[in-house]
Amino acid sequence: MEKSIHLDHLMLGVCYYPEHWPETLWQEDLRRMKALGIERVRVFEFAWNIVEPTEGVFDFDLFDKFLDLAYAEGMTVIMCTPTATPPAWLTTRYPETLNADKDGNLMHHGHRRHYNYNSPVYLRYVKKIVSVLAERYGQHPAIVGWQIDNEINCEMNEFYSEADRAAFRVFLEEKFVTLDALNDAIGARFWNQTYSEWNQVDLERHSLHGHCNPHMALLEKEFFSLSAIRFVKLQSDLLRPLVGQRFITTNGIFGHLDNERYTQECLDFMTYDSYPNFAYGQEGINGKRDGELGDRMWSMNLSRARALSPNFGVMEQQSGANGWDFSMLAPMPLPGQMRLWTMQAVANGADYISYFRWRTAPYGTEIYWHGLNDYANTPNRRLDEVAHIHRDFKKLTSVAGSKYVAKVALLNDYPNEWDGERDLWHGPLDHASRNAIFAASQHTHTPMDLLYLQPHMTAKDLRAYDMIFYPHPSILSDETATLLKEYCELGGKLVLGARTGYKDEYGRCPMRPMPGPAASLCGITVREYTLPHPAQQTEIRWNDDRLQALGFWETLIPNDGTETLAFFAGSYLDGECAMTRRAYANGGAAYYLGSGFAEATAVKLLAICGVLSPYDALVSCPADIELALRVSGEHQWFFLLNYTGEPQTVEIAAQMQDALTGALHQGEQTILPYDLLILQRS
Ligand code: GAL
Q: Are 490 and 588 in contact (CB under 8 A)?
């Protein structure tokens, strides 16, 4: 079921903390927001203590007043459940509600997200505060929707409290029923790990090298994800009957969480928190490491949000410098960058953009995480930029609800993602290939979607895409291989890479020639493989091109009827088959590359699959420009975004209208540094 936000125009919002400011400032704040075109505020995600300062004693005065004022001022509100920050009275009285490290040491009060999802005591308090809030504010006329908690699984996505350990055993018992089945699934015979009582089974404990059973480590991640989903579901089930038609969402996309499942089961749509300024950070969260794309790399994260909700919201959009007082430092956005990053989100499918935050925090860890207003609350260029964005949004009203269009998908799945976090024999390879494939799609202006394989997906669903990269699915079931084969039979072009199919669902390596279930799909067998040392070099010779053999090498034996496309060149693998193509009916094909994907390899594959640069004949752009297309019926909007400090020139073949100025453009057009061009066609 499509889980999209439904708005009839592109909308601006902002995160606001009435509890941080004197009441006398609220009205002026709300009026200034309205004057800037901000129509919505998000409140309350960390305010539990304000309404329940001591256990069972409620004081709604502050939020009653604020919500009534917001209503009177014509401001709509997204209300949050405050469960990301349980109050000190709760965590002190019930330390079992806290998360713990692998030695069982409890987190202390003072940060956020320090609770665990499985403590029956915490769940009792969560139910109570959510019910109390929903009963009091569920029908409040200012409130249009609810956000559950804040950034589920951010900061900490591993849980080792007593409650989690107990719940893990229940999870395993439900899944495997018998200890024999569990022992078998985790290969417990190795190193004497066989369990004879359920109470011997545990989450990871501090040991020589962490969890020495990789299969148990994979089960753990499945359990963390399930715990988080149950926690969110508990809240959405409580809210639903009390909030009427108002939407329920949450914000951010984080690890150890099946985001597809929880969006489907608990939410009306997903919102993302977009902070592209991390690319300019001083401590290594640097986009340049990931395919040299810098802030443009955030388009990959936005694609991730789009996979959950074709039209999504951004609950927190970068509006100033990054900075906790002790970490995550990055400069003020340059003039134009806030607007560029806002349009980056819109280009990629967002219809709602809410800035984090209205005013920079006057105290606490986030005193340098700048909002739209500085501490002094006086005019500044970031506020001017919001006014500019609002003027743009008014010109783009009908973009709301239009869809991002891509004919290429990059497929992923949770078991491989989670297994690859630990397994150095496929995780890093997958990461490098994904970034290179994404860079290829960006630099060649070939729009691409990100997709997570879901149990209900059919070959017809996949066939919405002409080409699918599924770079290194080490864990691959026969069912998935059959699905992919059906996709090829429907005319789809599938590309797989090294390390495909050698693991089963528990991450074990069964006695079966590689690439396991993909062998018949691709019409090949792997003869020999290695994880080369960086000093070992070989290339891939594909017609006249020499391409990098990235990260892993597999030599292939093609079956009769399978075509060899490329060979290894140099090293002891010289002349061995490196890439194949098995043809299917209706123009479909299964490609197999016995290596990782370098950017140039991905570009060449896009080309031979006939999907490269589909709009080049209309608008030809330099590699430094991102091109995204949103479509609604007959209407098309080409978003051309310049992330660089240099002017960029695009070439427009046939006359198109500038959606922001109304001017008609044809021929060369310059896009200034950190600026953009939106071309409209209907
Ligand atoms: C987000 C979070 C916000 C704020 C912001 C800046 O991850 O949801 O509450 O902390 O980052 O650090």
A: yes
8 Å CB contact between 126 and 119: no
Comparing CA positions, the residue from 520, 491, 496 lying closest to residue 610 is: 491
Yes or no: say if 211 and 204 are a contact pair by the CB < 8 Å rule: yes
- Tokens (6 digits) for 227: 């715990």
To the query of whether residue 316 is one of the catalytic residues in this protein, the response is yes
Q: How far does the centroid of ligand 1 lie from the alpha carbon of residue 8, in Å? A: 28
If you count them, how many residues does the chain have? 682
Give CA–CA dist 359/375, Å, rounded: 7
pTM of the model: 0.97
**Cα-based distances in Å from 38 to 352, 360, 602:** 11, 17, 41
Classify domain 11-157+244-399 by CATH number: 3.20.20.80
Q: Which of 45, 151, 417, 599 is catalytic?
A: 151
C-alpha of residue 102 to centroid of ligand 1, in Å: 26
Per-residue DSSP letters for 27-41?
HHHHHHHHHHTEEEE
Q: Where along the chain do its domains lie?
A: 11-157+244-399, 408-608, 619-681
* 281/273 Cα distance (integer angstroms): 17
Q: Which of 15, 16, 273 maximizes ligand 1 atoms within 8 Å of its Cβ, making it the mutation to test the pocket?
A: 273
408-608 carries CATH number 2.60.40.1180: no
- Residue 15 one-letter amino acid: C
| Protein residue whose Cα sits closest to atom 6 of ligand 1 | 369
The domain covering 619-681 belongs, at the CATH homologous superfamily level, to Golgi alpha-mannosidase II (2.60.40.1180)
pLDDT along the chain (682 residues), means of 10: 97 98 98 98 98 98 98 98 98 97 92 96 98 98 98 95 98 98 97 95 85 92 98 98 98 98 97 94 53 88 98 98 91 97 98 98 97 98 98 98 98 98 97 96 98 96 98 98 98 98 98 98 98 95 96 98 97 97 98 98 98 98 98 98 96 97 98 98 90
Three-class secondary structure of residue 356 per DSSP: strand
Is 17 near ligand 1, meaning CB less than 6 Å away?
Answer: no
